[in-house]
């Protein structure tokens, strides 16, 4: 039902014959039909119904908490709009410097065209990063090095211009702090590339981080409303996703301790090796994370199903431990894996889907309201010009 290894089992069943008879290629063709029918009804229908029930119950519980029988739909929209308006506090605009030169620079960097040109440079920088290949020629490396140097100079110039015009107000904006950190890391990475790559991370990572700034241009493009809705849904989902992540960690923690207690000395074969085993807490968590994605869990279960000779040695000594043997416990192993797959892969992971779908629905509804989040942002940006002291009057 989890689609893991079903084709191997199907081929073995199709080649099977009577008891004590050797397998023969496609001797039992009707078994193809059996497996296809089971996949359709046992996996496609049943598992999706399972997911549907989880999402439906999640939505029902949320409606019970958020419903209000004393307001109509239009009144709820009006109430939500007023709540948004009241929750946003007007900010004082950055004052234009009195110095003539600083004022000219201020007018230049605060224009929308300046932001768009910087975004274009970031996109071009992204293209140059895509051109890089493994084992490229020395000439190509030199060309890309100088191109990257030009981009660093341009982004450093942007930082200097903004610092001159915005003064200490530069560090009151989150995106500016982000730009400052990326520029400093890029400069350091350019001159200390070999040392940083040897002891820390590749300097290319600093240029990849800068690509996050492309998200700022979505507010400037009217056609990107759908993308903004998706990003808004993701941001709304983060707190709930964090809570579900903690729940998943708790489940993994309990099962990791249980796995260490029962399968620590299982024979290393098939999926159990030096890294994927239940000998330590860390390795147990890695195994459980692999099972959560429904990848390779059959390989981890196979050695645990060994119950005696010749598959395993029940008398094998383990230095430093009184436990003997490297055999598993089939009944405990099957219960362990089946219960964990149901809880983690079929329930908890699908709760992620439920949260994202619910928040996407909410984000879509909010974008269709008369006053959206973007409308409030634009209103306050315009209002700042007429209310420099943020008095709201």
Distance between the termini: 64 Å
The low-confidence runs, each spanning 5 or more residues with pLDDT under 50, are none
Helical residue percent? 55-70%
Average predicted confidence as pLDDT: 78
Number of domains: 3
GO molecular function: voltage-gated sodium channel activity
Keywords: Cell membrane, Disulfide bond, Ion channel, Ion transport, Membrane, Repeat, Sodium, Sodium channel, Sodium transport, Transmembrane, Transmembrane helix, Transport, Voltage-gated channel
Protein name: Sodium channel protein
Membrane topology: Multi-pass membrane protein
Note down, in words, how this protein is organized:
Helix 2 (30-66) crosses helix 13, helix 5 packs antiparallel against helix 6 and helix 7 (174-191) packs antiparallel against helix 9 (204-210). This protein folds into three domains: 6-67, no CATH class; 68-92 and 224-393, no CATH class; 100-220, Voltage-gated potassium channels. Chain C (Four Helix Bundle (Hemerythrin (Met), subunit A), Up-down Bundle). The protein is elongated and about 95 Å long. The chain has 14 helices and no strands. It is 67% helix and 0% strand. The longest helix is centred in the middle third of the chain and has 39 residues, at 225-263. The protein is mainly alpha-helical and 393 residues long. The model has no long low-confidence stretch (mean pLDDT 78). It starts with 5 loop residues before the first helix and ends in a 7-residue tail after the last helix.
What key attributes describe this structure?
single chain, 393 residues, mainly alpha, Four Helix Bundle (Hemerythrin (Met), subunit A), 3 domains, ion transport, voltage-gated channel
């Amino acid at each position: 039902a989890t689609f893991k290894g079903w084709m191997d089992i199907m081929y073995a069943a199709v080649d099977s014959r009577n008891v004590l008879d050797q397998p023969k290629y496609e001797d039992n063709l009707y078994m193809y039909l059996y497996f296809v029918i089971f996949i359709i009804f046992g996996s496609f229908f049943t598992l999706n119904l399972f997911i549907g029930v989880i999402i439906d119950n999640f939505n029902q519980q949320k409606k019970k908490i958020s419903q209000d029988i004393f307001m109509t739909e239009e009144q709820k929209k009006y109430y939500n709009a007023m709540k948004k308006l009241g929750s946003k506090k007007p900010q004082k605009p950055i004052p234009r410097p009195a110095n003539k030169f600083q004022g000219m620079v201020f007018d230049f960097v605060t224009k929308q065209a300046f932001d768009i040109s910087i975004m274009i440079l970031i996109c071009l920088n992204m293209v140059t990063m895509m051109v890089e290949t493994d084992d490229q020629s020395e000439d190509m490396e030199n060309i890309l090095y100088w191109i990257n140097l030009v981009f660093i100079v341009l982004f450093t110039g942007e930082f200097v211009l903004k610092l001159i015009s915005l003064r200490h107000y530069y560090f009151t904006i989150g995106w500016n702090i982000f730009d400052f950190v990326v520029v400093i890391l890029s400069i350091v990475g350019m001159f200390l590339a070999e040392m940083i790559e040897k002891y820390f991370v590749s300097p290319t990572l600093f240029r990849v981080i800068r690509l996050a700034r492309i998200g700022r241009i979505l507010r400037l493009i009217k056609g990107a409303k759908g993308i903004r809705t998706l990003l808004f849904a993701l941001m709304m989902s983060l707190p709930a996703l964090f809570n579900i992540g903690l729940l998943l960690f708790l489940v993994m923690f309990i099962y990791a301790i249980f796995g260490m207690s029962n399968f620590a000395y299982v024979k290393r074969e098939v999926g159990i090796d030096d890294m994927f085993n239940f000998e330590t807490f860390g390795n147990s968590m890695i195994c459980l994370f692999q099972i959560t994605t429904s990848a390779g869990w059959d390989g981890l279960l196979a050695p645990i199903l060994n119950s005696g000779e010749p598959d395993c040695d029940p008398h094998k000594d383990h230095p430093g431990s009184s436990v003997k043997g490297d055999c598993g416990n089939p009944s405990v192993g099957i219960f362990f894996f089946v219960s964990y797959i149901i809880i983690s892969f079929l329930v908890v992971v699908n709760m992620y889907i439920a949260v994202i779908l619910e928040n996407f629905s909410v984000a879509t509804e909010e974008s269709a309201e008369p006053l959206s989040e973007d409308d409030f942002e634009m209103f306050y940006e315009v209002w700042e010009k007429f209310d420099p002291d943020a008095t709201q009057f």
